[in-house]
Design brief:
alpha/beta, 2 domains, seven-stranded mixed sheet, two-stranded parallel ribbon, 45% helix, 17% strand, elongated
Length: 401
Amino acid sequence: MTKTGKPKAKRSPVVEGLIRNMLVTFLAVAIMGFFAIITVKAEIMDPIRRTIADFSFTDIYYQIEREGAAPDTCRYITIVDMTKVTARADIAKVLTDIEAAKPKVVGLDCVFDVEGDDIEGNDAIIQVAEKYKNIVFAEKMLEWENDSVGYTKTIHSFFREFVDIKEGTVNMPRKLYDSMKRKAALSEVCNGKRQLSFVSQVSNLYTGKDMVGTKTGDININFSYTKFPVLQPEEVKAHPELINGQIVLFGSMYEDADAHWSPLGKIAGVELLAYSIQTIIEQSDVKHVPFIPFCLITLLIIFIVQVLQSKYLKRTGLSSNMFTKYIIGSVCIMNILTFLFTSVFIGISFLIFCMFHISFNLAWALSVIAFLGVSRNMYTAIKDYVSSVKDKYSFLKGIDL
């Protein structure tokens, strides 16, 4: 009854169902949020937090790409392996052989930080650096202070003070708890001055234009399945077609100390640089859906699954057929069907990723969907509890779940 004494208008079944599904959806989100907070805040959960930090939904996209598909071959980046070349004189000789094939740019993933006693080798490297101005030398920045100052120490090649060379930092950003390398720095700050990164320098030299512009942050590397041609030093002269007019990265392919974890597994540092350069040149960096649209789309997906699950349980529960009611209507079968249905969302998000390089993290939606069954049970329990006590307490009489 209302305050005027008239009977209270009953909500239509459609509105009733809509409210119920919305409440179940938000309750599932709250349950998932509760466990997420525990995982983040509780120190005992550190191993789980680190594992989660290592995961990104783009890893699934890359795995789908690799399943049964041949990689695309990059036509403008070739890697020359430095693993077995350690003497500076030998490095200089390989660089001379590379330059004889007229590459557009050579990226040298090596820092000659100490002059040492190898006078002949030092002279050979210096001569190469003086003669060829299309070489980008690596530098390493150390001792981070803060965002405004940046790094306070830089390791250069020893001849930088008296030879005009082009350098770029090979520092690769990563999250505190994340051992994965997913980002590439376009530039870094050292002692308050911003300097272009190695991959930016190589990209700019190859294209002949500023590929970075006013952007100063990191980019998400696109690890779409790609094969970069790899030559051993003795093969350089035999394959000038893989060098002429191209980017040549000279670095170690098989040295474990210079390998990094990536979404593709453990790969060489020089290969990581190749993916980064390809991402910059092709402007194919991975973009993530902004926070508010992400939240709205995630809630919509969860809500749709909740509606379908509720209708499925209701239909099978009302069936007079025992097999349908108890076998087809079981939670196990429903979860299998839910998995197949959510695979459609994964497929759609994968197509969007392939076409526009936009990544949507479905992990949150899938995690919350796993709690929908618990949420429905909690909703029913709360509703039954409120119904049992609202006659006893007048302030609850208006509550209608």
